[in-house]
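agent: user wants the structure for Clavesin-1 from Callithrix jacchus. delegating to structure tool.
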Amino acid sequence: MGPISLLPKYQKLNAWNGDLAKMTHLQAGLSPETIEKARLELNENPDVLHQDIQQVRDMIITRPDIGFLRTDDAFILRFLRARKFHQADAFRLLAQYFQYRQLNLDMFKNFKADDPGIKRALIDGFPGVLENRDHYGRKILLLFAANWDQSRNSFTDILRAILLSLEVLIEDPELQINGFILIIDWSNFSFKQASKLTPSILKLAIEGLQDSFPARFGGVHFVNQPWYIHALYTLIKPFLKDKTRKRIFLHGNNLNSLHQLIHPEFLPSEFGGTLPPYDMGTWARTLLGPDYSDENDYTHTSYNAMHVKHTSSNLERECSPKLMKRSEKTTVWPFPGN
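agent: tool returned. relaying tokens verbatim.
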């Protein structure tokens, strides 16, 4: 992602003041810089924001095979932002989001931080989430691949923990616009570990992250990858969109190339940055709150107080049963907070 072209400071402030009156509540809390970025990069126009949302909502009737269990303005807006306000593309992503969950129901049962599998993955640092954002306002996620203890965490549970983390983070409108960066450190990742990354589970991850989630990924950075990770990347390339392929960077042990894209002041020392080494429990403590423990014997109390607070009654009020298949009418859909 290239540098952001913003108006000169005095013009930007004048534009901001002039837009205050027409800014919708859906943009409340966004900085002037982020609103300008949304206009320039995403084609977001506050004058027609509600019309854009309604156009996507009107397409729901075309997919009676899918239960669209959340259709409020704020929810649909994140899909529009992820697809630069192309309504048809945004609706396709919205449909794939719910279809992925229908096709993989087991993944989304008890889809919250105190689920035993998700809990173990979070405690083991899957994913890591840096507190501060980079110079473009993007949130940086970390994966230390060698920490995957396959006797303790299944790949599916790690994927569930990543998806749950993204669900929490994407509630922030600034991140809907600025997006995310993913850095994967392959140091000491063994061939035996790599052999567990089968085409089927890699495809499951790609479908969940690339095709079915409303997040803007500005880059996926591989660091210290061995030859067999190069081979795996070749294997999954056919499943990647051209846009995704262009945003995957294979740095090897060349941290200078990483620093050209992400400044060292935003990175922990493991990546040659100026920040302290990353604490693997940081993000787990954020989700689990004061009862977090790395011992396996904590009680979940805080996650429901996080950003995602859609209860079953909210969902029932927001969705039309006519859009759900018979089997779905008896399924409690696993939104965070339920």
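agent: one observation worth passing along. The CA atoms of residues 49 and 190 lie 49 Å apart.
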